[in-house]
Amino acid sequence: MKLLVCISKTPDTTAKIAFKEDNTQFDENGVQFILNPYDEWYALVRALEIKEQLGGSVTVINVGGPSNDVVIRKALAIGADDAVRVNTEAIGSDVVAANIAAYARENDFDIIFSGKETIDFNSSEVGAMIAEHLDLPFISYASHLDHDGTTATIARDIEGGVEVVEVSGSFVLSAAKGLAEQRIPNMRGIMMAKRKPLNVIDPVVVESKMDIVSYSLPPVKEGVKMIDPENMDELVRLLHEEAKVV
Amino acid sequence: MSVLVLAESPKGKLKKAAFEVVHYGFKAAQELGGSCIALVIGSADEVSQLGKYGASKVIHVPEDRGGMDSATYTDMIAQVVERESIHTVVVNHSSTGKAIAGRLSVRLDTGIASQVNTVPQKSDQGITVGRPVFSGKAFAKYLIKGDRRVLSLMGNAMAPQEVGAACPVEEVSLQVPTPRVIIKETKTVDGVVPLPEAELVVSAGRGMKGPENWGIIEELADVIGATTACSRPVADSGWRPHHEHVGQTGVAIRPNLYIAIGISGAIQHLAGVNSSKCIVVINKDPEAPFFKAADYGVCADLFDVVPRLTAAFKKFKAL
CB distance from A153 to chain B under 8 Å? Predict the structure, then answer.
């Protein structure tokens, strides 16, 4: 099995969200960056498990500048065999997907994994786009994957439950919680990661059809109104008359 | 040039999400030009009713192929886009829509914005449209360049309003390849509004002490017609099914009312629920971080308060 895992760099879950340059740019000052959790915990780990079961190799691919090498090395420390970085800023999902697809087209992977979304832009677009570029089946929000070497059986999260599907041949999958359990890199993995190949390649597409004009923060909550626990009629009244939600 | 919306009909029924996307398409057409055409794929009842929410015409592809995959949908939508001369395609940001939107944007060679929650506006280079980013902690205004684009509409972002009457329906047959993803089984809970679509949600956490205590949560939800949800530790411990988990790694929701019971409010939980219109927090710990994100708070033992709240709702409903 030749496996490719698409990985992104995102601000840490607990990062303070602020903007600069007249609210046109994310303020990275003091922000800790991490491997996108869906890519790391679920996509990458399940790919490693499939390799352990069926043999083969796991390559991780990232689109971004040299500052991304830290999170790419982490993916190598967790167990990926080698890494590719497409050397251009990940300015839009279309640019990211086109570049990953261009690499994948030359390298014939059996399964291409992505996370279900990144925790910064939450758009769930890249996996589906790669599948279309390569004319492959796409299974989104996979929370369970079994593979017998020929056919994959996958459970994907849908509204209020799961859908169990089967697919044969190569496919693209986006990973949701449940697909695997997080692995913490050990010292040996971290040492080995330094010697694993990280190939930097040139982009094929650099212009996006999307651009962010401005950011804004949600209005600040007025503050919580505490209700007397003995008086739940009052809470119901407020929900009806003030909040108008019941 | 018109707007095309995909109105989903799960199990043959058009539901709120379909009315939302049609009404959004109607508003988008008012801004960008043309009319709103609704596409319904598979069996569905009373598709002409989509006219009420603003569709000028329904294109109905009735054939049920026993399951569709994202490529098959993309193929069908792309054919309709060429036939009807479409400038904007809108799908719901649902499990189906999310799998289609990215594919379709590549097929049509257009820009895309997912999970939009504002009506698009014309701009010199294309359109602008708003959507939440950073898991609901901020909003971004996107410019989508070019004269065509694909959008996916966030759930509960736009209340569907009746603006017209039933519209004409065109039954169409389309040539499509056989799906490569074969659906073997669908396991969903019947008779419950799925969380992403729910307007009222009652959610509980570790403060419940064990799965055997969920009766008071279910009763409260039942009385107000809410969907039940839970925090991550509860789902991870197997107290409640995985699909009830709301938060960053679980389902992101946007109900009108979110009642959080015995949930402390970790940042990962808030990321999945902070777009709720009104948040009620019931927790006996006055230091619980969730109170800072709440509109109303009750600081008391949940085992006392929840049955009392249920009784108060019963009284209110009986009025």
Answer: yes
Distance (Å, rounded) from C-alpha B216 to C-alpha B211? Answer: 11
A139 touches B at CB < 8 Å: yes
> Is residue B185, in this structure, part of any structural domain at all?
no
Are B166 and B200 part of one and the same domain? no
pLDDT value at residue B64: 66
Interface probe with A: pick from B15, B88, B181, most Cβ of A within 10 Å: B181
Chain A stretch 15-34, residues whose beta carbon is closer than 8 A to a beta carbon of chain B: 17, 19
A110 and A74 Cβ atoms separated by less than 8 Å: no
Q: Token pair 């002490």 is at which residue?
A: B209
Residues B70, B12 within the same domain: yes
Let me know if residue B83 belongs to a domain: yes
Q: How many domains, in total, are found in chain B?
A: 2
Contact B188 A123 (CB under 8 A): no
* Separation CA A175–CA B253 (nearest Å): 19
- What is the edge-to-edge ordering of all strands in the sheet holding A57-63? A198-201, A82-86, A57-63, A2-6, A111-115, A171-175, A138-147, A151-158, A161-168, B182-188
Per the rule left: phi > 0, alpha: psi between -120 and 50, beta: everything else, A134 is alpha
The residues, any chain, with a CB within 8 Å of residue B277's CB and separated by 6 or more, are A243, A245, B254, B255, B256, B257
Please report, as a single letter, which amino acid is at residue A190. I
Give me the CATH number covering residue B36: 3.40.50.620
Q: Which of A160, A177, A210 sits opposite B195 (nearest CB)?
A: A160
Q: Are residues B65 and B163 in the same domain?
A: yes
Please give the CATH number for the structural domain made up of A2-219. Answer: 3.40.50.620
Query: Closest Cα to residue B275, out of B143, B131, B151?
Result: B131
Global pTM?
0.94
ipTM (interface predicted TM) = 0.95
**Tens-place pLDDT, residues A80-104:** 999 999 999 999 999 999 999 999 9
Domain map (residue ranges) of chain A: 2-219
For residue range A158-185, list pLDDT tens digits in order: 988 899 999 999 999 999 999 999 999 9
* Domain range for B300: 195-318
